[in-house]
């Protein structure tokens, strides 16, 4: 990539890339971090960002677990060992969800976070059981780069702006568990937010909530379709572009990866910035290297060195 002064001499717009979501720009109000893609144009060529492959480790009682549509979970391994394996295999990031912390109303798995931080040297985010700024601080001090808020953000939306002010928007991920429903006045998109690990419908519209969270300072969205979760039948290709094309922050697609074609489609048709993968790599259908090589050969920009 050319040096920044050379880029500034061009006459086409480009935007400063982000590493872990996006950064607040000058001029934003304290309670409203801005997105550089919409509010911080710079003159220069367009920059293409690499698509990210992110293994997802759902953790329950200290073990990685996997289910289908949030049900029938079974234990499949040690989260620390699996994180190390995926780091060495070329993962761009790793996501950990303590899947019962919110529904059980207990604290996050800080011991697991600390152990993972000692083993891997790529960004990782942690969600589940994060309800306060102090919870966020504990997770970040334990070694995570990002925190993901889902149920807590729905119940207390102010936590998004509070976290963005305290730690920067790049640290705040909005987790969204979404289910397809009949469109109503309250849910005009036909996609409803569900909380407490898929147990509690909220009557909230997914698109409206994503846009509100961005305004409040979320730096990234992890968009999980309950309908496709664990099915290995493909990502939700109506929901994903609906959100991706109507927010200005990165969107991680989650739920349904069963083949490389599915990942290719969510990047091209779904307009996702990153793809969460679970069953496809947990059960060794494909390695991360195979996924990246196939995407690269089809013209999708991915990180090929590790």
Polypeptide structure, described:
- The chain has 306 residues and is α/β, with parallel strands linked by helices.
- It has a domain at 4-56 and 146-297: TIM Barrel (Alpha-Beta Barrel), CATH 3.20.20.70.
- It has an 8-stranded parallel beta barrel with strand order 3-6-7-8-9-12-13-14, surrounded by 5 helices. The chain has a two-stranded antiparallel sheet with strand order 1-2.
- The chain is 31% helix and 24% strand.
- It contains 13 helices and 14 strands.
Give the SSE map.
Elements: H1 4-8, E1 13-14, H2 36-39, E2 42-43, E3 52-60, E4 63-68, E5 71-77, H3 79-89, E6 94-98, H4 101-104, H5 110-117, E7 124-127, H6 133-141, E8 146-149, H7 151-155, H8 158-167, E9 172-180, E10 191-195, E11 200-205, H9 206-216, E12 220-225, H10 239-244, E13 251-254, H11 260-268, E14 274-277, H12 279-282, H13 288-297
Parallel strand pairs: 3-6, 3-14, 6-7, 7-8, 8-9, 9-12, 12-13, 13-14
Antiparallel strand pairs: 1-2, 3-4, 4-5, 9-10, 10-11
Give keywords.
globular, alpha/beta, disordered N terminus, single chain, 14 strands, 24% strand, two-stranded antiparallel sheet, 306 residues, 8-stranded parallel beta barrel, TIM Barrel
């Amino acid at each position: 990539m050319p040096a920044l002064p050379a880029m500034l001499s061009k006459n086409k717009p480009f935007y400063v890339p982000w590493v872990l979501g996006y950064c607040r720009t000058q001029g934003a109000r304290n309670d409203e971090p801005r997105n550089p893609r919409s509010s911080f144009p710079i003159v220069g060529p367009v920059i293409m960002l690499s698509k990210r492959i992110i293994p997802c480790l759902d953790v329950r009682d200290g073990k990685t677990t996997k289910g289908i549509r949030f049900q029938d979970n079974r234990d499949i391994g040690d989260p620390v060992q699996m994180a190390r394996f995926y780091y060495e295999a070329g993962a761009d990031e790793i996501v950990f969800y303590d899947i019962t912390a919110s529904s059980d109303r207990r604290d996050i798995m800080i011991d697991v976070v600390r152990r993972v931080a000692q083993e891997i040297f790529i960004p990782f985010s942690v969600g589940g059981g994060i309800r306060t700024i102090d919870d966020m601080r504990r997770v970040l001090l334990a070694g995570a780069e990002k925190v993901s808020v889902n149920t807590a953000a729905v119940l207390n939306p102010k936590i998004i702006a509070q976290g963005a002010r305290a730690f920067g928007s790049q640290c705040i991920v909005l987790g969204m568990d979404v289910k397809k429903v009949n469109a109503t006045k309250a849910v005009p998109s036909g996609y409803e937010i569900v909380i407490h690990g898929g147990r509690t419908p909220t009557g909230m519209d997914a698109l409206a909530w994503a846009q509100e969270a961005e305004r409040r300072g979320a730096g990234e969205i992890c968009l999980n379709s309950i309908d496709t979760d664990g099915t290995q039948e493909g990502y939700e290709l109506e929901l994903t572009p609906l959100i991706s094309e109507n927010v200005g922050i990165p969107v991680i697609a989650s739920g349904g990866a069963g083949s490389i074609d599915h990942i290719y489609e969510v990047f091209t048709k779904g307009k996702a910035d990153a793809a969460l993968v679970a069953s496809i790599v947990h059960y060794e259908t494909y390695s991360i290297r195979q996924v990246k090589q196939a995407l690269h050969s089809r013209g999708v920009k991915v990180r090929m060195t590790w």
